[in-house]
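Model: Ready when you are.
Researcher: Fold this.
Model:
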Amino acid sequence: MSKIWTKAQIKCALEEAGMTLTGLAELKGVNPSQMRSVWSRPSRPAEKAIAEFLSVPAAELFPTRYPIRKSSLLSAENEALIARKKAARLSDKGAAA
């Protein structure tokens, strides 16, 4: 079972390794403002940099952001419903041809 990481735990792990968010941004070539805003909005480069530095999957550090979804407006159930409808339409077109 994977650990649930909090912002404080991530920052503490970085600090224990002698790293700051700004230092990590410089090391990984990520814009420092992206690194600082990773707590409030998704930033794949910042998430990846932190995950790689801590040797922890990004999905474990930021579980609410993974897996990556195409739309945050649709629930998973509605996305599945739409996908089934599209598949049915495609199979109908194939049968008619």
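Researcher: Now this one.
Model:
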Amino acid sequence: MATTSRSATAGNSSSNAALNSPVTERASEAAHHAVDSVAEKAATAEDTLRKTAASSKATIDKKQEELKMQMQGSYERSKQFAQENPLAAAGIAFAAGMLVSALLRRGN
């Protein structure tokens, strides 16, 4: 048992010596500095991504609203045209249906 405690004590003193060596301290400081630097860059990148995502969402929402307004305007104009010219609207609808039908038959 005495041999075991002596070897354990010798192991502790050699590990303490390694922890106190200037090379180990410099390596440890360099590693900490590198980790801190990467963490800062990651935080900056995350912040930039969040801002870009928020800006993109705002742009998409704006474009979606503009498209919605254009669609409503087109619908209103089409509805007004159909009310003013019912025969022409029926003819256009018939021709469009024939065109779509012909295109679908060709595809098969």
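Researcher: Key takeaway?
Model: Confidence is low (pLDDT under 50) at residues 1-11.
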